[in-house]
Amino acid sequence: MAAEEKWNSWAWKEHSAADQAGDKDSCMLLGQQLGEPGRFAYAALCGISLAWLFPEKEQSSFRMEFIEGLVKWLDLPDAVLPAMTAFASGLGGEGTETFAQILLKDPMLKDNPIVITQDLVSFSLKDGYYDARARVLICHITWLLRIPLEELEALEESLLESLKEQKEEESETAEVSRKKKERRKKLKRYLLIGLATVGGGTVIGLTGGLAAPLVAAGAATIIGSAGAAALGSTAGIAVMASLFGAAGAGLTGYKMKKRVGAIEEFEFLPLTEGKQLHITIAITGWLCTGRYGSFTAPWSSMLQSSEQYCLAWESKYLMELGNALDSLLNGFVNMMAQEALKFTVLSGIVTALTWPASLLTAASVIDNPWGVCLHRSAEVGKHLAHLLLSRQQGKRPVTLIGFSLGARVIYFCLQEMAQEKDSQGIIEDAVLLGAPVEGEAKHWKALTKVVSGRIINGYCRGDWLLGFVYRTSSVQLNVAGLQPVNLDDRRMVNVDLSSVVSGHLDYMKQMDTILKAVGIKTKECRLEEKGSASLFSPPAKKTQQAAGSEARRDEDAAGGGRWSWDPVDSPDTLDASRDGGRPCPGEPFPAGLAQGLDSAGCSLGETSRPCPGSPNSEDGGKHAAGTGTETD
Amino acid sequence: MDEDVLTTLKILIIGESGVGKSSLLLRFTDDTFDPELAATIGVDFKVKTISVDGNKAKLAIWDTAGQERFRTLTPSYYRGAQGVILVYDVTRRDTFVKLDNWLNELETYCTRNDIVKMLVGNKIDKENREVDRNEGLKFARKHSMLFIEASAKTCDGVQCAFEELVEKIIQTPGLWESESQNRGVKLSNKEEGYGGGACGGYCSML
After folding, report:
1. Three-state DSSP class for residue B151
2. Which of A317, A333, A297, A352 shows the shortest CA–CA distance to A510?
3. Please, what's the largest Cα pairwise distance for chain A?
């Protein structure tokens, strides 16, 4: 089958060691070919990683279910369960490196460790449900095995592609029935959208343009015979369909049928054409006339996932706010005052700050639209939370990213989700940039319940505008968008954007640079990648966390002329104050290219990859040691 | 849940394949014996709380697989262990001879040099003994280990082996104190040279 071949060839094309015999093997389930010690090490590695990633008590059922499922999936005897359970509950965590080494030395995996990732993806998808926690785990394991994260993305993409191909083949032969189906589809669509919210698992629907039975057929060729047994069943077909959201409509199909609460506008705009097993939703903070008049404008360069959406909400008010912000900066407050304000805010005495009279006279211009939007963003956030909880997006991980009031939407969305049941495993990462929300760690604690991957708080110390507009909303000026959130959790990553963002409006105008700084993939990066490929052997190494190394790479490769700040200072621009958040289980990666990985990592050439989860660990560490300005 | 537990100790059981590591553990934790016990895969894990000198200690016992094919996995368990039980079969001399290898491995992978070691000669209920008790005792003394002969089948010395080991660990405060705070990474090892003194502590029961 074409799909099968594609899958195989993909799995091997990265590795020159591909041979024909191996080609056949790679579609077999890993559990059938890997030796017992290898399988044991594989499961143990997952167990230990689970315990490390999700040590919370409320996650224990997920950990246990996952590890028990994996033991069965790998055909390991039940006798290993006590040990696996011990691993998954945080015991024996010292062995990570040994287990990883064993796997990397296994003759079957030596040249091709990606099959572990491949197997984990298949395992995680077998119930038609891609849990965000599972994806975070897969990313972690992938990293432990020194595999570039791009390979995981490529793997997920090719899985989807094969599904699509399968569908096209079939549709030619069965065009008549397809047309019939399509007619029925239209009729059933509304019904199905409703059904999906009730029980996604039981809906036999159509995935984003793909007929469900065909999806399962395609999946069978990919996942392998044993995996297909699970997917080929009727239930399997249904859950496979549910992975992609209600009846193929997904998020774009979502329209508010009527006003919900105070919300007037709430709609998803697709940012990209593609389909992916995980999606990204971007939320804009305000609108301006001119170039930034649309919700999608600031996100033009983002490429976090090949399926991205942008939330359009309350454009009327956001436009009003944008214009007010503009006029405030261009008319009422002169440049001198702005500079002065910036430094006052920077010096950290904002609590006692007396705002200049010129600004206070202008306050009426901004306070009203700001107040309205502040209120609406909270409402929109709650609505988004319920939408995500009802799995309109399908059962796959979601990454949320937003700036200014968009970040506030995310904050309230996560807060709302944290109060609901079954809210875990939906959100992968959350990126909040210049967020006008409280910056107290205790308020952020709830967020860790729903976010599986990272919570990134991008802040700017000199953002006087944020300080000003937020002055009435909060007595103490403790705003997340102005300072790091001192939450002790591996998920929490604070990124100081002070040298990238010179004012609040930059969040919109400098989005490209900011995205890179916080470690979100952008389109430009991919292009640039090709240019410097000779220096950094395998291309497409742009992990979503690689921003830190990216800055470095620029220094090394091109002198960093592309960056708007002086590259020499780049370690100072990025302050992952939680750099200890995800400690490297192996040797810590030293900065720059001089990193020596004693294992297959070297042969893969992924030299400049920092720890997953702490995007700028090296820079952050350096920074903390170097300047010591940030304490957390 | 266990507030009255003084500490949690990590105990490791190592030794050649088929010497009865799992049987010893099974006898200790569940007080049962299965002559047809299947070979351990990777590692087995059991928890038991015991009381020694009025102190309650929770034992997290890792029972490793002796089979050669799982040998590569063993190094991952040594780290952070406070006590190790080396088992040989008194009816098989080769398992006794191989003890040197196990001690080498212990030396290589163990993160601390004050780890308490206990040598157990198992299967003393059997007739065809190949390793004399004195030989075992001499070996244990030479490598400053505690020593006991036991039988998982008849329950001889099993309880004592674990109790002696735990007692010794508790008497070595640097070994288990503040263990809860810094899991894993501990670069300094202050209680150096303690192992030399442990020699006198071997127990020769039975």
Report:
1. strand
2. A297
3. 78
Q: A311: which 2 tokens? A: 């939330």
Question: Measured in whole angstroms, how far is the alpha carbon of residue A265 from the centre of its chain?
Answer: 25
Are the beta carbons of A77 and B41 separated by less than 8 Å?
Answer: yes
Interface contact B69-A40, CB threshold 8 A: no
Measured CA distances, B59 to B6, B28, B165 (Å) = 11, 11, 11
Q: Which residue on chain A is closest to B76 by alpha carbon?
A: A95
User: In 3D, which of B94, B111, B101 has the Cα closest to residue B71?
Assistant: B101
CB of A221 closer than 8 Å to CB of A7: yes
What's the gap between Cα A436 and its chain centre?
21
Would you call B137 helix, strand, or coil by DSSP? helix
pLDDT in tens, A193-240: 322 322 233 222 223 323 333 344 444 444 443 343 444 344 444 445
Residue A425 contacts residue A133 (beta carbons within 8 Å): yes
CB count within 10 Å of CB A267 equals 16
Sole residue written with tokens 């992975």: A243
Spatial neighbors of A114 by CB under 8 A, at least 6 apart, are: A11, A14, A15, A147, A151, A155
Question: Which residue has tokens 């009255």?
Answer: B4
A289/A326 Cα distance (integer angstroms): 9
Nearest CA in chain A to B62: A83
Torsion region of B43: left, alpha or beta (phi above 0 gives left; psi -120 to 50 gives alpha): beta
Tokens at A53, concatenated: 């990633």
Residue A35 tokens, joined = 């030796």
**Cβ(B105)–Cβ(B71) under 8 Å?**
no
CA distance B64 to B73: 9
Largest distance between two CA atoms of chain B: 48
Alpha-carbon dihedral sign for residues A266, A272, A273, A275: negative
Tell me whether residues A40 and B41 touch, CB distance under 8 A.
Answer: yes
Helix (H) or strand (E) holding A398: strand A398-403
- The predicted-structure confidence for A521-546, as pLDDT tens digits, reads as follows 887 644 444 433 333 333 333 333 43
Among A372, A375, A363, CA closest to A325: A363
- Rounded CA separation A455/A488 (Å): 12
Strands (E), A441-530: 455-459, 492-496
Q: Considering CB atoms only, which of A37, A76, A94 is closest to B69?
A: A37
Integer Cα distance of A604 and A538 in angstroms: 7
Burial B146-170 (b: 16+ CB within 10 A, else e): bbbbbbbbeebbbeebbbbbbbbbb
The packing angle between helices A132-144 and A60-73, to 10°, is 60
Q: Which residues of A418-435 are buried (b: 16+ CB within 10 A; e: fewer)?
A: beeeebbbbbbbbbbbbb
Band the pLDDT of A29: cuts 50, 70, 90.
Answer: low
Chain A residues within an 8 Å CB radius of B79: 94-95
